[in-house]
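Sharing in case it's useful to others searching the archive later.

Someone asked me privately for the predicted structure of APC family permease, so I'm posting the question and my answer publicly. Question first, with the sequence:
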Amino acid sequence: MAYGLARRELRPRVPLRHGEGDKYRLTSIEGLAALSLDALSSVAYGPEAIVLVLVAAGTGALTATLPVTLVIAALLAVLVVSYGQVIAVHPDGGGAYAVAKKDLGPTVSLLAAASLVVDYVLTVTVSLAAGAASLASAFPSLGSHLLTICLIGLALLTAVNLRGVAESARVLMLPTALFVVSILGIVVLGLLRGHPVAVVGTAHPVHATEALGVLLLLKAFSSGCSALTGVEAIANGVPSFRDPRVKRAQRTELMLGALLGLMLIGMALLIRRDQVAPRGGVTVLAQLTAGAYGTGWPYYATNLIVTLALALAANTSFGGLPVLMSLLARDHRLPHFFGLRAERPVYRWGVVALALLAAVLLIAVDADTHRMIPLFAIGVFIGFSISQIGLVRHWAGERPRGWLRRATLNGIGAVLTVVAGIVLLATKFLEGAWVVVVTIPLLMLLFSRIQRYYTEAGRELGLGETPPPLSVADSLVIVPVSQVSRLTRHGLQAALALGHEVVAVAVYADPAKALALRESWDRWNPGVRLDVIDSPQRSLVEPIVEYVRRAAEGGRQIAVLIPEVEPLHRRYQILQNQRGLLLATVLRARTDVVVCVVPYRLSV
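And my answer, the predicted structure tokens:
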């Protein structure tokens, strides 16, 4: 054994804090629950979006549901493979943002970041609103409380995610499994039965208003692509997985694609066979549920499971957006505190910011799903397109083995997502998509302004430069006091440790009280000079600020040390005099002196 080298097992180990280590990260199954429920639950509204478009050409046009769904499933396969490549190339997460930053330049990366932020916030709001609406369909008395239900669900999800992604994944595993089993049960039983067991909802007369042409098919395709939302979340949340995190994340992405594709195609087969058209008071999924299970307890249980899954689908954003915001903070495009992690592996500032943005949007639209759906997929398709185009450029630049095949696959995906995004934007612009068109550039401007501030601040602070040598300057420590007490002694004792000259300053409007303080000071004789300032206007802050300004003339180093009482219990804080904190705030705003607040801790 070589001298100076200890065996690995003998080296001292730093104990891990709570939340550190693989124990608190995601396995593949937990990742499927924590980051994929948004994409999986989209089968509740994706096929219905296709039906709502095609039925404009009459019930006969519903036969086109299957071919449109097959194209969407093909696009899903391309996206799953592409995001598997994104995971390998960018294991630190970030998805489309990481791809754009590396391969497409700063402007496109800002576009990717803004679109992802919009997508994640809308994922939360649409999922919660859809879940509340589904619950109200089963229990009509809740119809007037949709916003309250959404806000309660948002608060619960926020609380769970503040405890950590792994904990939230374990909470979501059972609802995810129940949802997948319920939907696959609908598909299997529905296909085994020759016809629907039961029909629910109120029939509406269907009048053909359009011809089944290329434009209508494109509209159906772009609307149905809302079922693809959330596919990118796993690539954005790679750091949340256990090691080997790349393989685990890729495995999770493949499981997501297989389950989602199977459910979409199965539901499309049932819609085509049974000519399922929109009916009043129920969703298309509810009609398929009744056709497979009947109207007994399995029907109500499945509706409740779907409601729960839609509500919990918002958890995808809580797993992805805080990681994205931490990457933006690392790149100086968001405030740096978004990159801070708590003792658990949680970016809590990102979780709180997402919850606040979602709450504001829910209140603004009164939890109306239909007002948010037009906004939903625009940001998704921007991210999809940027990821595909960025990977094409990546393969063309790196040229590894098999790069042409990979670039071709990504190029096909880019064409499909760009076409779907353009059609969706053109058809939904006046229905609310214009909000996204305005919001994304504003977010890009915000990110760039924050980055410019950090750049200019770093230049002014001389970050990365060698500063000039230190110079020793004469210093003075000023301690504001009001009377002779243990608090005054505590402050002066701390001041004497900071500088070689200390002066106590008191402000009085009453000459008699000023004289009494002077006499008490002389009797105590602490060895520190006392200056008493006369203030006929009974102002405390302004006289001290002026005193500090005069003392700082000539470049002398000044420190102001403010003793402040701190009670044992926070409920007594409001009972304390807040003048010290007010003085500290004004001094920081109006002077360049060092301001210190020294707590004197009470036992009550």
